Amino acid sequence: MTDVTVVEEIKTEGGLSREVLMNLGPQHPSTHGVLRLLLQMDGEIVERIEPHIGLLHRGTEKLAEHFTYTQIFPLTDRLDYLCPPSNNLGYALAVEALLGIEAPERAQYIRVIMAELSRISGHLLITGALPLDVGAMTSLLYTMRDREMVMDLMEMISGVRMHTSYCRVGGIREDLPDGCGERIIEFCDIFSVRISDYEKLLLNNRIFLARVENIGNITGEDAIALGLSGPNLRASGVDWDIRRDAPYEIYDKLEFDVIVRKDGDCYDRWKCRLDEMRESVRMIRQCVQQMPTGPVLIDDPKIAFPVDKDLLSRSMETHIHHFELAAFGFKVPAGEVYTAIEAPKGELGYYIISDGSEKPFRFKVRAPSFVNLQCLTERTTNVRYLADVIAMLGSLDPVMAEVDK
Amino acid sequence: MVQALSTGKIISHFGGRVSLDATATDMPCVKVAPTDLVELCYYLRDNTAYKFNFMADICGVDFHPKTPRFQLVYHLYSIPFNWRIRIKCTLSDPPIAPTITTVWTTANWHEREAYDMYGILFEGHPDLRRIYMWQEFEGFPMRKDFPLRGFKDEYNPFGADPDSKGASE
C-alpha cells in the first residue's frame, strides 16, 4: 500500500495516543478513482472514516444551466462513465416528461437494450474488481475480457465505446445496424455461460469469502435511512426495484426477477450484482425478440432532426427547422420534473426546473454513488479493520465521476 | 401501486402551515415554512398511512434576482406504498434552514452539498463543511450571480473580473 501515508499522530493530554490519522488515496488503486479517505486508526482497527470527495468535481450542474437540452447529453455520459446509456436514458425521460412526449416504441426497446448492456458492463467491472481488491487478481482479467464484448456491441450500435450519447430527446440517434440483433443474442449465449464461470472461480474461493462474508453488514432499516439504493439496498433485504415498481419505457412488458438478498454484507452486495447480470441477459433476449419495427425518433421538427435526411435538400421548411434546432435548441415548457430510473448503481434521479427557455433553469442530478458512498462514515456498517474498509468500499461500487459530478 | 397519494389529509393535519403546490404535475407537491419542515418530515416518515422512509434528494435552487431568493426542494419516497412526494421550502437571504439529519441520516451529505453550492446554512447539522469545493474556496458556485467561468484570480486567469457585478459569462 504505497499510497497509504501516516498523516499525524494524535496527541492527547497525557502524551501521544495510540491513534493515528492515515490517508488512504486519493491515488490508491482500491479507491476506484480519486477518493481520499482519512482514517482514524487505533492500530489495525478503524475508529472513524472520513471521505474527502470533490477531486473530480466538474460542475456538471452549473454547466448544464448554460447548455441547451441536447448539449446536456454528453455531460450525463460523464457521470457514471461505466454506463453512459443508462444516464442518457434517465435524462431523456426527464426532458420528455416536461415536453409531454414519448419516444417511439422501437426506440424504447433499443434504449432498454442499451441500458441493460451498460448495467452488465458496470456490474462486470465490480464483479472482477472487488475480488481484485481483496487479493484474487485473476477474476478481473476474465471480467474485463467479457466486458470487451459489451464494449464492442456499444461501438457497433452507437459508434463509440464509452461516451455513447446515444439517446436523444424523443428517441435515439439512429437505428440499430444490420445484423445487430444476432450479435446481441450471440453475446447473451456466450455470456450466460461466462457468469457460471465466475461463480465457479469465486464462490468456492475460501480466501475471497473470508474477506467479504459478514463484513460490512448493513441492516435493511439502516440502509433505507442511509439512502442506499439499487443492489446495495436489495442486498440488505429491501425489495425495491424502480424497473418493477414504477416501470418506465417498456420494462412492464419484460419478465424478470428482482434479486433480493438477506444479510447486507459485502458478499451479498457482490452476489446481488452477479445475479442481476443474469436478469439483464434475460431482459435483453426478450427485448431483441419483442422489438417492433418502426421509427426510432419522434416526428416533430421542432424537437428532433428529420429521420429522412434527404428532406433537408428538398424542403426549405425542414432546412429552417434543422438550422433552428442545431443553432438554438428547442424550448421546453415551464415546469419541473423529477424522474428516477434504476441505474446500475441505484436510483438515478434528474430534477429539472424549466423556465420555458432552451436551457434548464436548474438541473439537479441525484447521483446514486454519492449517496451510497456516504454510508462509509456511519458506524452502523460494521467495518472494523483496515482491510475491511477496502472490501466495503469495493462492494459499495462507487464511481467517483458520479460522486463528484 | 395501491392507490394514488392524496395530500388532503396531510394539509388538513397541519392546518394552514402546509399548502399544496398545484403547479407540479409529476408528483404531489407541498410547500412548508422552514419552521415546520422537521415536523412535517417526522410526520411523513412515521405516520403508518404514508411511511415516507426514503429521502431521495435535497436540491437547492437560487431564484436570483427574485425574492425570496432561495428554495430547498426535498424528494421523498415511500418504499411500502410506492409514492413520491416533493416538499418545497422557501428561504430568504441569508438562507437558513433546519437540518433534517435527525430524520434521515442520508440528509447529511445532501445538506453539505446545498451549503457548498448555495451557501444555505442548516441549523443543527453535525458537520456543515464544504463537500465538493476546497475549504478555502470563497463564494458559492451554483448561485446565479456566480459566473460560469469563476472569478479571476491567481489560478484562474480567464475568470470573470470580480469587480464587475453580474458578470454572467
Task: Describe the structure in your own words.
The complex is a heterodimer of chains A (405) and B (169). Helix content of chain A is 46%, strand content 15%. Chain A has 16 helices and nine strands. The longest helix of chain A is centred in the first third of the chain and has 29 residues, at 105-133. The model of chain A has no long low-confidence stretch (mean pLDDT 87). Chain B has a domain at 8-107: 2-Layer Sandwich (Beta Polymerase, domain 2), CATH 3.30.460. The radius of gyration of chain B is 18 Å and the shape is elongated. Classes of the chains: A alpha+beta (405), B alpha/beta (169). The interface between A and B is large, with 38 and 35 residues.
Level-2 CATH architecture of the largest domain in chain A: Orthogonal Bundle
- The proportion of strand residues of chain B reads 15-25%
Main β-sheet of chain B, in a few words? 5 strands, mixed
Query: Strand share of the residues of chain A?
Result: 15-25%
Q: What is the alpha-carbon Rg of chain B in Å?
A: 18 Å
Largest sheet of chain A: 4 strands, antiparallel
Compressed to H and E, one letter per element, the order of chain B equals: HEEHEEEEHE
Q: Which geometry of chain A do the CA atoms define?
A: globular
End-to-end distance of chain A, in Å? 28 Å
Tally of DSSP helical segments of chain B: 3
- The CATH topology name of the domain at 8-107 in chain B reads Beta Polymerase, domain 2
Short structural description:
The complex is a heterodimer of chains A (405) and B (169). Chain A is an alpha+beta fold and 405 residues long. Chain A is 46% helix and 15% strand.
